[in-house]
Design goal:
By secondary structure, the chain is an alpha/beta fold. 32% of the residues lie in helices and 21% in strands. It has 14 helices and 20 strands. The chain has an 8-stranded mixed beta sheet with strand order 8-9-11-10-14-18-15-16, sandwiched between helices. Strands 1, 2, 3, 4, 5, 6 and 7 form a 7-stranded mixed beta sheet that branches. α4 (123-136) runs parallel beside α5, α5 packs antiparallel against α9 (300-315) and α8 (241-247) packs antiparallel against α10.
C-alpha cells in the first residue's frame, strides 16, 4: 500500500521524483489552480503559458509532465487536469480533486515519492485528495512475472515497476485534528477498498468460497470483529436451500460468513449482505463464450460488504454493522441444480429454478432471510446481479431499489457524497406476476424486460416484516473492462464500499432517523 503523509514542507525543498499541481480549463486557456503558487512563482508566472505550449488545456484526466524549475529538488512537475474552472464562489469539488489525484498517482507508477500540491480549501478536500491518490496508485500484479505484488508463494516478480510508493500532501495541517482525521479515514477506507479490489481480481482457482471465508476471518480477528462461518454441513442443517442449491454443482462447497462489528455507543444496527459467487459459469444454464471470462468478479458485492464492515471497525463508528457474505461457486456437473428443480429456501418459501444463471438472487435470499432474524434497522444487499441493470444504467452507475423511498434517497445521497454514481430505480408491482410458478411459491425468473427490477422484487419477498431494505445492483461498475480513468483501475473497482461506509457514518451521526 502506498504510504501517505501530510507535509508542511515547501514545494521547492521536498525531495522526491515529482511535484503534482492542478490545472483547470479556463475560457482563454489553462489556468494554474491554487496550491501551486510556489511552482508558478518559480516559472516567473508563466507556468500556464508553458503548459498551453505543450498542448495542455486543463481538461479532466489530462497529464502533462515538464522539467521542474531551477532550485527544486524534485526533477519533474506533473500538471493534472481538473476540468472547468469553478464558477465564482464555488470550489473544485471533492470528486474532481479525487479524480485528479488518482490520475496523477497512476501516471507516477514506479516512482518512489511525489508531492501533491492540489487545491485544498479544507480538511474534506484534503481527505478527497488523499483518497483519490491512494486509490489511483492501486495495481494488481501478483500473477505477472514482472509484477510488484506478492503471489501466494510470497515471492515478488522480477523488474517490478509497482505503484507510487510514497505521497506527501502539501498545504495540509498535520497538527489539526480535522485534517488528521480526514487523512486517517482516507487511508483506512482506501486500504480496505483496495483489498476488495484484490479479491475481485484474484483468479477463481485461488479464490473459492472457503478461501474467501478464510481471508474474511483473518481480517475480522485482526480488527476485533466477531466472525462466524457456516460450512456446507451447517448450511444443510440450517436449511439454507438457496446457497446450497447454487453451490451443489461445484467441488468447492459454499459458505455463509457473518461479520459483526459492534459499538458500545451504537443506537442503530445496519446489516449489509453481499453476493459472493466466486465464479459464475451459469451452471446448467451455461453462459456462452464471451460472457464468462470475467465472472471471477461475481463476488464483488461480498467484497464490498467485507471491506465496508472492516472500514467501520477501523474508523470506530458508533453504529453496529453486520456483514453477511453469501459465498458459492456456480458450476455445471452431474450434481448441479437443474432448470425446473425446486429449492426450499431458508425462509421456508419454495423457489422454482427456471434459470440456473439467475443464481445470485438465490444466495442473497437466504442471507436476507437470516439477517432479518436479528431485526436490524435496515438491510442493504449489494450484488453484481443483472445484465439488465447494465443495459439500463451503463458501466459506471449502479441502481438502487428499496421498499422505502426515503431510505432509497438516503443511499443515493450517500453514494453522491462518496463519489460513486448511482440512480434510484422503481419496483413496479405488476412485474411480480411474471414470477408466478405453478409448482412453487415463486420462480427465480420473470419478465425479460425490466429484468433488473424483477430481481429486486424477488429479493423483496425474503425481507423480514417491517424491516427497511435496499438492493444495490452494481453489475455495471463493479468490474472495469475498459481503460483506467481517474482513480478507477482496469479490473475490479471496489464499487459500493465507499457508499456503504458513508451510509454507516450518516447512520452513526443520527442522519437516518
Amino acid at each position: 500500500m502506498t504510504a501517505l503523509t501530510l507535509s508542511t514542507a515547501a514545494a521547492s525543498g521536498l525531495r522526491g521524483d515529482a511535484i503534482v499541481v492542478g490545472v483547470a480549463k479556463g475560457a482563454k486557456g489553462p489556468v494554474v489552480a491554487p496550491g501551486a503558487e510556489a511552482v508558478e512563482k518559480a516559472y516567473d508566472g508563466k507556468l500556464a503559458s508553458v503548459l498551453e505550449t505543450l498542448g495542455a488545456t486543463g481538461g479532466e484526466g489530462e497529464v502533462t509532465k515538464l522539467p521542474a524549475p531551477s532550485g527544486f529538488k524534485a526533477p519533474v512537475v506533473v500538471a493534472v487536469g481538473l476540468g472547468p474552472v469553478p464558477e465564482k464562489d464555488e470550489t473544485y469539488g471533492t470528486d474532481a480533486l479525487r479524480r485528479a489525484a488518482g490520475t496523477a498517482a497512476r501516471a507516477l507508477s514506479g516512482s518512489k515519492k511525489a508531492a501533491f500540491a492540489l487545491p485544498a480549501e479544507d480538511a474534506d478536500d484534503t481527505g478527497a485528495i488523499a483518497e483519490g491518490a491512494l486509490l489511483g496508485a492501486y495495481s494488481f500484479d501478483a500473477y505477472k512475472e514482472n509484477g510488484s505484488a506478492k503471489g501466494k508463494d510470497g515471492k515478488s516478480g522480477k523488474d517490478a515497476k509497482g505503484p507510487l510508493a510514497e505521497i506527501a500532501l502539501l498545504g495540509g495541517k498535520p497538527r489539526d485534528k480535522a485534517y488528521k482525521a480526514a487523512v486517517e479515514r482516507a487511508i483506512a477506507v482506501s486500504e480496505e477498498l483496495n483489498r476488495a479490489r484484490d479479491l475481485i481480481n484474484t483468479p477463481p482457482n485461488d479464490l473459492n468460497p472457503e478461501a474467501f471465508a478464510a481471508v474474511a476471518s483473518a481480517a475480522a480477528k485482526e480488527h476485533g470483529i466477531k466472525v462466524q462461518v457456516l460450512d456446507e454441513k451447517a448450511l444443510a442443517k440450517g436449511g439454507f436451500g438457496g446457497i446450497l442449491g447454487v453451490g451443489v454443482g461445484s467441488e468447492a462447497p459454499p459458505r455463509l460468513v457473518k461479520l459483526s462489528y459492534t459499538s458500545s455507543k451504537a443506537k442503530k444496527h445496519l446489516a449489509f449482505i453481499g453476493k459472493g459467487i466466486t465464479y459464475d459459469s451459469g451452471g446448467i444454464s451455461l453462459k456462452p463464450a464471451g460472457h464468462n471470462e470475467t465472472m471471477k468478479c461475481d463476488m464483488a458485492g461480498a467484497a464490498a460488504v467485507f471491506a465496508a464492515v472492516v472500514s467501520a471497525a477501523r474508523l470506530g463508528l458508533d453504529v453496529n454493522v453486520t456483514g453477511w457474505l453469501a459465498l458459492a461457486e456456480n458450476m455445471p456437473s452431474g450434481s448441479a441444480t437443474r432448470p425446473g428443480d425446486v429449492l426450499r429456501m431458508y425462509s421456508g418459501k419454495t423457489v422454482e429454478v427456471l434459470n440456473t444463471d439467475a443464481e445470485g438472487r438465490l444466495v442473497l435470499a437466504d442471507a436476507i432471510a437470516k439477517a432479518s432474524e436479528d431485526k436490524p434497522d435496515a438491510i442493504v444487499d449489494v450484488a453484481t446481479l443483472t445484465g439488465a441493470m447494465m443495459m439500463a444504467l451503463g458501466s459506471r452507475t449502479f441502481g438502487i431499489m428499496a421498499n422505502d423511498d426515503a431510505f432509497r434517497a438516503a443511499i443515493h445521497d450517500a453514494s453522491e457524497e462518496a463519489g460513486e454514481p448511482s440512480w434510484p430505480m422503481p419496483l413496479p408491482e405488476h412485474l411480480k406476476k411474471g414470477m408466478d410458478s405453478p409448482t412453487a411459491d415463486i420462480a427465480n425468473m420473470g419478465e425479460r424486460m425490466g429484468g433488473g427490477l424483477v430481481a429486486g422484487l424477488f429479493l423483496k419477498e425474503f425481507v423480514g416484516e417491517g424491516i427497511t431494505w435496499a438492493h444495490l445492483d452494481i453489475a455495471g461498475p463493479a468490474f472495469n473492462e475498459g481503460g483506467p480513468f481517474g482513480y478507477t483501475p482496469k479490473g475490479g473497482t471496489g464499487t459500493a464500499v465507499r457508499t456503504l461506509v458513508r451510509l454507516a457514518e450518516r447512520t452513526a451521526a443520527g442522519d437516518l432517523g
